[in-house]
Write a structure and sequence with these properties.
It comes from Actinocorallia cavernae. This protein is mainly α. 58% of the residues lie in helices and 5% in strands. It has a four-stranded mixed beta sheet, sandwiched between helices. Helix 4 crosses helix 5. The longest helix has 19 residues.
């Protein structure tokens, strides 16, 4: 597969470096520096240390009152994990720019399976954009309403835990209302996210060091989740990362393990509340409990709720505690139980075992896969692009599946 990662830097060779810096206004360059610094969660002092300038000089640069010199540009690009071309506004390929940013942000010592998968997908999208013009990823009218609500009504950061949980709940309720989801369980969550919010979703067995990864920025929106967890765990990860995207998290790369997702801060508490109420609406839970056990929480009703809403025991117990249906001490006792034993004892209400079953699914973003298959059939890209999306061998079996136009064989 062609990576094309040198394409961004190649832009710098089209004109002398001095001409490039003079062509870019200090205000525009400074704005991009400020955005990149925020996304990397760097203070002005910290960026200054990395590039050898004082905090006041960084402030002047970001406010457009000081131009970055030719010799300083590479230092800023390296410190911010972007390309020189990005800082100068010389690239019209946002996916490639994000790939460059992601590649520069990977720590050699960390488990970066999720980032490597995301990088593959960004590179594939850039190749397809250049050769096959895939359809843009756009939200539906209903999805845009949810975006607008999140960005306008919930733009203020929560001041305390209660407000964080309230904001997350309100966003989940708004999404269910706008999308006409009622109080029922969600079916194809990846498809729903892609269809209504213009976010590509990829699932892969990526180990258990990272639960999920959300990448979003100008013209790019991607969620990657590891399927080395139970199906219920994966669904909560997807909803959690969607919450970061909807609420406009300033970080352009959000790479999270379980400890990060459940960190004791207001930002994570808000997106967890969103994920919980989106997957397990209070009305739906109360209706099911009334039908199964006269409104009481029993072992059997717990397993039935896990099955119905496709969630893990930990997520369900947390939600029941939030709703006041069980006490904190009861939630601790329930979480200490072996989930497999619990489901086995009540297998009659858990035919699929969604709360505990690990399937190690591979799912490519539908928008990219459809475009890649069509482009391969028309010889605009090689079959390796399809193979990369599906994480399978570029062999005769894949050739036959693509050319025979049998989508079921591709999965």
């Amino acid at each position: 597969m062609e990576s094309g990662l040198t394409g961004v830097e190649a832009l710098g060779s089209l004109l002398p470096a001095e001409s490039l810096t003079q062509a870019a206004s200090p205000a525009d360059v400074g704005h991009r520096v400020g955005q990149a610094r925020t996304r990397r969660a760097l203070t002005g002092d910290a960026l200054g240390v990395l590039v050898g300038l004082g905090k006041d000089q960084i402030s002047k640069i970001e406010n457009g009152r000081r131009r970055i010199s030719v010799r300083e540009l590479p230092k800023f690009a390296e410190a911010l994990g972007v390309s020189v071309a990005h800082l100068l506004g010389q690239t019209s390929r946002p996916t490639l720019a994000m790939a460059h940013r992601l590649a520069g942000d990977t720590n050699p010592d960390e488990d970066s399976n999720a980032k490597r998968r995301a990088l593959q997908l960004l590179e594939v999208e850039d190749v397809l954009t250049q050769r096959a013009a895939p359809p843009p990823a756009l939200p539906t009218a209903a999805g845009q309403q949810v975006f607008d609500y999140a960005r306008k009504e919930l733009s203020q950061r929560p001041r305390n835990k209660a407000e964080a949980e309230r904001q997350g709940k309100h966003l989940a309720e708004q999404m269910r209302r706008q999308l006409g989801l009622g109080s029922h369980e969600l079916g194809d969550l990846p498809g729903l996210i892609e269809r209504h919010f213009g976010v590509d979703v990829a699932l892969s067995p990526l180990g258990t060091q990272t639960d999920g990864l959300c990448i979003h920025g100008d013209g790019v929106a991607l969620i990657v989740a590891s399927t080395d967890f139970s199906q219920g765990h994966v669904r909560f990860t997807l909803a959690h990362e969607l919450g970061h995207h909807l609420l406009g998290d300033p970080r352009d790369v959000i790479n999270e393990g379980e400890r990060d997702m459940f960190a004791d801060n207001l930002q994570e508490r808000r997106v967890n509340a969103f994920a919980g109420h989106l997957l397990m609406p209070e009305e739906g839970i109360r209706e099911t409990l009334k039908w199964l056990s006269a409104g009481r929480v029993t072992e059997r009703s717990l397993v039935a709720l896990m099955e119905q809403f496709g969630v893990s025991l930990a997520a369900l117990v947390y939600q029941l505690c939030v709703m006041g249906l069980i006490t904190y001490d009861q939630s601790k006792r329930l979480r200490s139980q072996r989930v497999t034993d619990l489901v086995t004892r009540h297998a009659s209400v858990a035919p699929t075992g969604a709360g505990i079953t690990v399937r190690q699914t591979v799912r490519a973003p539908e928008r990219l896969l459809s475009a890649a298959v069509d482009a391969a059939r028309n010889q605009r890209v090689g079959l390796g692009v399809v193979a990369t999306l599906l994480q399978r061998e570029d062999d005769d079996a894949l050739w036959d599946a693509v050319m025979e136009a049998d989508p079921e064989v591709l999965v």
